[in-house]
Amino acid sequence: MTLGQAKAAAMMLIDQYTPDSPPTDDEETLAKLNCLVELAQVQLCQIKKKERRCALLESQGTVDPETGMLTFALPQDFYQLRRVTMADTGQEAWAEVYGGTLETQAGHGTMVLQYYAYPPEITDDTPDETELALDRDTAQVLPYAVAADLLKADPSADYASFEAKYMGLLANLDPRMSAGRLVVSAPGQRGL
To answer: What is the distance between the alpha carbons of residues 169 and 174, in angstroms, rounded to a whole number?
Structure first.
């Protein structure tokens, strides 16, 4: 889904909500859309996290001579640490995040940083053709968040239906939801 498609979907929802009035083309309303899409996509990426990986070459880090700890600058899209592993063995390595840096023990050679990332930032100047960095199911939730946020500022609007739909769709994205249980048994055996 592109930024333009997300904005069009949100405006379509709002226009369906008010069928007696003409389609929304208010400049002030349209000017808020990029900001609202940015806020919604950041919130959604915190619910359904996007995992990224990058190599940490020991030669690119800075060694503290007193402690022997190795420090790396974090990627700009870094949101949350998942884990750090040694590239040659796959074993997990100790690591701590401090501000915009990652600290780990020196002497492990090349390591792999696995982290959760923020999506690329959307500003007022972002073109509508920009592809959103969201999964398809996550992108389908975004227009409801934008529509609800846009209508919250209007005291005459009832945004509760959009908010309720958004919260329902958001709950479906939550990775903590149970996927159920499947029991397989061989013929003549009973399952659990």
So the answer is: 9
Neighbouring residues of 74: CB distance < 8 A, sequence distance ≥ 6: 97, 100, 101, 102, 115
Structure pTM?
A: 0.73
- pLDDT tens by residue, 86-132: 999 989 999 999 889 999 988 888 999 999 999 999 999 999 999 99
* Phi and psi, residue 104, nearest 5°: -145, 175
Query: CA 151 to CA 147: how far, in whole Å?
Result: 6
- Give the largest CA-CA distance in the chain: 71
How far is C-alpha 107 from the geometric centre of its chain's CA atoms? 33
- DSSP per-residue codes, 163-184: HHHHHHHHHHH-TTS-------
Structure confidence by residue, pLDDT tens digits, 157-172: 667 777 888 888 888 8
Residue 48 CA to residue 147 CA, distance in Å, equals 20
Distance CA 73, CA 101 (A): 5
Q: Please state, in angstroms and rounded to a whole number, the distance separating the CA atoms of residues 82 and 53.
A: 10
Residues 130/122, Cβ–Cβ less than 8 Å: yes
